[in-house]
Every structure is written in structure tokens, then in C-alpha cells.
Write a structure and sequence with these properties.
The protein is α+β, with helices and mostly antiparallel strands. It has twelve helices and 14 strands. The protein has two domains: 176 residues, no CATH class; 213 residues, Barwin-like endoglucanases (Beta Barrel), CATH 2.40.40. A hairpin with a 2-residue loop joins strand 3 and strand 4.
Length: 408
Amino acid sequence: MWLRILRGSFYYQRKFIILILISTVMGASIVSALLAVSMEVSGKVAQELRKYGANILIEPKPGLNYLREEDLPKIKTIFWRHNIVGFVPYLYRVVKLDFRGKTAKVVLVGTWFKKSINLPEGGVFKTGLQPMVTGWELKGNWASDKGKTLMLGSSLAKKFNLKVGDLVSLSYGAQTLKLKIVGILSSGGFEDDQIFVSLKAAQELLKAPGKISRVMVSAVTVPMDDFGRRNPKLMSRREYDKWYCTAYAPSVAHQIEEVLKGSRARPVWRIVEAEGKILSKLKLVIGLLVTLAVLASSLAVATTMITNILKRQEEIGLMKAIGADSAQISFLFLAEGCALGLGGGLLGYGLGFLLAGNIGQAVFGTTFEMKLILLPIALISSLCVTLLGSFLPLRRAQKVEPGLILRG
């Protein structure tokens, strides 16, 4: 009997049913799309932020002057090796710059510009300053890791009236190198007063083969929390395993120390904390949007159902007159709402897949994966929409007086 009543209700109330279904579909699609974004936004945003600088610094331990260049591929052997998106070695020293009789002491930086390295576990990893730094303004071209070329900061170029194509001499002790300027960079920071050459050229000039001063690592990490900030030396074995297997910046740095002999790795806290705040606020905004989407859809459902109940007062009065109580009336309308909620959830999940894909393409240039776990979430959210939207209409239906309605 109940199925026959529901079938007749859906048939004779098609306009109201379609309006309620649209409301639940929109709510479920927005919720599922935003949750899909929320599940992957941390990794996507972290990867985007990695383009603007490294977040882990590696230096020699106290008492040591250098790290070994040959050890750097080991960074890609740690537990979180897939989270390492790039690393760049640096070799610093103050040298003498000579250009057309003018001399001055400047900071020389030897580094990788665009490097492909063979990994211990197989494969090739591409890294270097060029793919890791995207915020610099460059006039000219990047220097080469093989040729006798250099890049210099804009402040230094202005001071000596240097331009692209000029030849300069760099001296350190008895060693001298003549290099051609191929690019002038502007970062707005201390790099504007430095000279950048290939790591091989710097090692040759400084007579430090295979030596590096520090390494900047760009790793995708999760936002820091109270547990991530704890001292691992004071943790139990179970807590340490959890901390070690979570992509916190300190745990990634700790694993790098384990594979690089004589190194001391630590997070660049200014960058790590800023990224954590950005991700936390972004997730908060997504949570608020999900809540607003559910409330807005529930309000649309409530408005439609109240109109429907006002139109069906004679039907409700007749049902009460032949013996139906308030619980049975409520069950009927809740059954209608749940059926529409489940249907709207299924359709909303499919629409959310398209919506999440469009958001990913528009913001990150890639699509978000619509995980299957979002299907029950979409169904639950659509049921919540219909149940919340049904609360006030059901109260209105329960107050219908059959005597007054049937007398007209």
C-alpha cells in the first residue's frame, strides 16, 4: 500500500518532485565536488607552493665545512622520496670580480641550473635552480651547467654597468676564470647582489672538487600540528613510527639526515608555517562552503515541500479522517524525501565529478580524482538535505485538522 501511495504521489506531484530533486542534486554535487577538492587540495597547493622556494635546508654538521655532491642522489631513497620534488646544491665563496679594470669582491654561487641525475634505485630525476625557482625576473637566458657562462643579479649589473654578452673575470687565489654573462636576474632579495655559475665551474675556481656548502630541498609536506612539533627523542616507539611515517617537514628532514653522511637538515620554518596556515584556511573555507551548500539546498527543499503540503491539505485531512495518525503521515513524506534524496545523491555524485574536474582544470591545470568513498558521502549529504528540509513541512502537516479541512 505504501509503495502504491508513493508511486501515485510521484506521478501526480511531478512538478514538486522535480524541484526537490533538483535541490538535492545541486546540494549533493557541490558537497561531493568540494570534498573531492578538499581531499587533494593539500597536495596540489603544496606542489604549487614548491615552485616558489625550498622548505628544507641541509648544511654540514658543526665542525665540517662541506657536504659531498656524490651523496645527493641518496635524498631520493628516503621513505618520502616521492614527495621530494627538487633539490639544489650551492657552493658559496667571496671572489674577486674584474671587468674593464674595475675590481670588487662579490659573492659567487655555484649551483645546478638544469640537471638530470641517475638515482640509486634506477631512473632519472630532473632538478635544478631553473625548475625550482619561478618567481625570478630574468633578462636573457639561464646559464648552462656545462658552458663557461654566468648569471648575475640586477643590483650588481647596475653597479658595474654590466649587460648580457659581456665577459668578466673571476679570481680566487691563483685561479682565474673568464665567463660570459648570459642572463641578469631580479629576485628582490639578496640574489640581486650575487653571481651564479655552474657548480662545476665554481668547484674548479675554488679548487673544491665534489664539495658543496648547502642543499635546498623542495618537499611536499603536510601542515604542521601539535604532534608534528613534538621532539621525536621523547616519543614512544609507536608515536615515533607514526611521526616518521607522516610527511611532516621535520620528519622528512630527519630522514634526509639519515642518508646524507655528515649533514644537518632542518625545515625552513617561515615557509613551512606559512604553507600550513594557507592550507588550514583553505580547508576552513571549503568546510564553510559545504555547510552553506547543504543549508541552501535544505531551504529550497523546505520551501518546495511546504508549498506541496499546503496544496495537499485535503489529502492529508482525508488520510487522518480514515485513521492515519501523525506518525504515519510523517513516514509518508519522509519516505518521499528519502527516495528523492537517494536519487539526488546518485545524480549529484556524477555531476560533482564534472564539477571537480572543472575546478581542477581552472585552478591547477589538472583534474581531481573522484574517489568512490565520496559516493556514500554524496548520498548521506542528500539525505541530510531532504531531512533538514522536511522538518518544518512535517510540523505543518501534523497540525492539519481533518474536520476543518473537509468542511472547506
